[in-house]
Write a structure and sequence with these properties.
The chain is of the alpha/beta class and 443 residues long. The protein has three domains: 11-90, 3-Layer(aba) Sandwich (Rossmann fold); 93-302, Mur-like, catalytic domain (UDP-N-acetylmuramoyl-L-alanine:D-glutamate ligase); 311-441, Mur ligase, C-terminal domain (Protein-Tyrosine Phosphatase, Chain A, Alpha-Beta Complex). 32% of the residues lie in helices and 22% in strands. It contains 14 helices and 21 strands. Strands 6-7-5-8-9-10-11-12-13 form a nine-stranded mixed sheet, with helices on both faces. A six-stranded mixed sheet has the order 14-15-20-16-18-19, with helices on both faces. Helix 4 (114-127) crosses helix 9, helix 4 (114-127) packs across helix 10 (293-302) and helix 13 packs across helix 14. The chain is globular, with a radius of gyration of 23 Å. The chain starts with 10 loop residues before the first strand and ends with a helix. The model has no long low-confidence stretch (mean pLDDT 92).
Amino acid sequence: MIAISGLNGKTIAVFGLGKSGMATLEALRASGATVLTGDDHAKVDIAITDLTKADWSKIDSLILSPGIPHTYPAPHPVAALAKKHGVEIVGDVEYLFRNVSGPAFIGVTGTNGKSTTTALIAHILTTAKRKNEVGGNLGIPVLSFNPLGKDGTYVIEMSSFQCELTPSAAFDVVVWLNITPDHIDRHGDLAGYVAAKKKLLRKTDKKQVLVIGVDDAHSAAVADEMEQAGEWRIIRISSQQMLENGISAINGVLYHNGKALFSIAKAATLPGVHNGQNAAAALAATNALGIDIGTIDKAMHSYAGLPHRQQLIRTIDGVRFINDSKATNADATSKALACYEKIYWIVGGKAKDGGLDGLEEYMPRIKHAFLIGEAADEFANWLNGKAPFSISKTMDVAVRNAAAIAAKDTGAVMLLSPACASYDQFKNYEQRGDVFAMLVNVI
């Protein structure tokens, strides 16, 4: 746990009691603060304060869960009260920066690939025998980190919401992967979303490195802007073009300034072009901290991957069974469909806007689709004439039927990549993936 200084006699409000909120509460209490807790829907065994009725003249800081709006489209009533009374609104990552100096900090942001890149960076550090703690938007809340000395590194996945709530951000390395429209309901428009991410790029007295993908126009513009400012060392990365100055991932090979370094084509947990970008980012970030290329190569080939993100569950008689339950929309599913040629596809759940639109080019790869959940009938209409399909409705039926057919097709892939939310049949995508894995493991 991170020790927080200077809180004796201070009153801190914590609103939002999920995983990070509860970790924040524990750290604050251990540091001597008086803590007022609030949540609209919390099911926790602690006293909850109605912060809309609190005396805000006695509150020194509001630590807000990043999922709660404080600006657009309208501030939550608790955030509005804090603003009215001049009380700062920050997140838990802000308190980490205020209370820790010495270790290196790597922040990972972008629309897609953050979790894989964050975990891969941490794995490279571990392989290099560098002490590290990894978390933030992924995994462990930052105030639950173990203290590290100057030889340690904190690797933090940063959502756009967390970027907004961390005004003291002072990362040694920022990894900016990509930008596609996301969370527009919270940022107003794409410009607002980009502006939130850019809050990580504040200049400090550190020698700072920005590793930035340049395969989308918005990120490329930020790279040019930051290079012109001349305050950060800029390392461009690409999985679509060979860069004369930067790190490229082309056809499974990583290049530095056009010179081949090593191949990740046989790294089973890093398939596809999108993971090429993730690998290029992890290479650039860790090499910037002094880790040698040989160690990075070794680490990428021993990386176990993240659960529910193209996670290999089993291989039976040459057929791979892959859990990609984290793919909750068509764009995420496209990354998996692009990786395999003969696919027995389990798809469906609670459909997102747009359904399966955008996946047309991948339909020749689909040997058969097995439709589950609320979206089954809608997706059947979409697939009609594009790919063979049947309606399974439930996961157990889909796995049983898909396994029976795929078993006759050596080299095929049975892929759970739902392109849907899970809430119609499961409490979250993790439970959906766990059920899939359980069913596959008893085949």
